[in-house]
Amino acid sequence: APQALAAATFMLAGFALAQQDILWRDIQAILRRSPLRHMQTPGGFTMSVAMSNCGPLGWVSDRKGYRYSPTDPLTDQPWPAMPPAMQQLATEAAALCGFDGFLPDACLINRYAPGTRMSLHQDKNEVDYSAPIVSVSLGVSAVFQLGGMQRSDKTSRISLQHGDVLVWGDEDRLRFHGVLPIKPQQHPLTGEDRINLTFRKAG
Ligand code: MD3
Ligand code: FE
Prior knowledge:
oxidative RNA demethylase activity, ferrous iron binding, single chain, seven-stranded antiparallel β-sheet, 13% helix, oxidoreductase, Jelly Rolls
C-alpha cells in the first residue's frame, strides 16, 4: 500500500523490485541507442547527472534552455520507444496512488555516479500539471529532499532505495525537490551507480 509523504506525494517501497531484471535489460537497450550524456545548462554549466530518455518526448537542456524534444540531439533520431514494462509500471503505480489513466509520453533516465547531486528545482517544463509524475529508483541509495512551493521553504529528507517508486501530483506537483550527493556504495545490479526513471506526461 502507498505511504503518504505529503497530501499528494506517495511512496511505494520496493514496488519495482519484481520487474528489476526486465527494467534493467530495457534500460541497457535504450542506452545503446541513445547513450547517457551530460547536458549543458542554459547558464553554461555541465550537469553532473548523466541523462537519456525514452518515449515520444525527451527532456533536454542546452544553452538555449530546458524543453522536451521528440528527437535525441545526439543522434537526430527519435528517442527509443518506451518499453511496455516501463510504461505499465508507471501506470500501475499512479493508479495505486489515485491517479487513474496516467499515460506517460516521456521517461527521463538519470544516472548518478558517486558524488553526483541534483540541486533543488521544480519540474515546470511539462504542458499539463494535472498529470502526476512517477519516479523509479534503481541501484545504490539516495537521499531525496522534498521542499515546499518556494526554494526557501524547509526541506525534509527521504531515503530512496533500490526498487522504490514515488508518485506525486496535484498540490505537490510543483514542490521544490533535489537529491543530495550520492555516497560511494555498491549495488549488485548497477555497481556504484544510481539510476532514476522519471515518467511524465510532457506534451
Ligand atoms: C517532486 N529527479 O529528473 S525524482 C528530475 O531522483 C528529478 O533523479 C530526481 O527531480 C531523481 O527532475 C527526483 C523524485 C521526486 C519525488 C517526489 C517529488 C520528485 C518530486 C514530490 C514533489 C515534487
Ligand atoms: Fe525534478
